[in-house]
Specification:
- Strands 2, 4, 5, 6, 9, 10 and 11 form a seven-stranded mixed sheet that branches.
- The chain is 0% helix and 60% strand.
- It is mostly beta strands.
- It has strands spanning 3-7, 10-12, 18-25, 28-39, 46-51, 57-59, 67-72, 77-82, 91-101, 104-109, 113-117.
- The protein is elongated.
- The model has no long low-confidence stretch (mean pLDDT 96).
Length: 119
């Protein structure tokens, strides 16, 4: 069974920083795209940032220049460094991965980690 486990969420003041991590585990042959999504109360889930296996990235306009996505392929882990956080960044952040496992190609989601930006 393949799973994604996120960590690093919490409460931070406006202007502060947090680093989210997401580790994939299980019987995995290859991990292709990985990304971070978020869902604020009463809103739809939205893409925050994504990264390909080769390291190409893209970001939502709202986080460009403040957030950085990276990955460690050897550890099957993706990170999201979040700087200059704003109250509107408050949301549950979900990790996502497209990968190939023993059962074939899968899209897998993490359980989510809450980020709260408040003074």
């Amino acid at each position: 069974q393949v799973q994604l486990v996120e960590s690093g969420g919490g409460l931070v003041q406006p202007g502060g920083s947090l680093r989210l991590s997401c580790a994939a585990s299980g019987s995995i042959f290859s991990i292709y795209g990985m990304g971070w999504y978020r869902q604020a109360p009463g809103k739809q889930r939205e893409l925050v940032a994504a990264i390909t296996s080769g390291g190409s990235t893209n970001y939502a306009d709202s986080v460009k220049g403040r957030f950085t996505i990276s990955r460690d392929n050897a550890k099957n882990t993706v990170y999201l460094q979040m700087n200059s956080l704003k109250p509107e960044d408050t949301a549950v952040y979900y990790c996502n991965a497209n990968l190939e496992g023993v059962t074939g190609y899968l899209e897998v989601w993490g359980q989510g980690t809450l980020v709260t930006v408040s003074s």
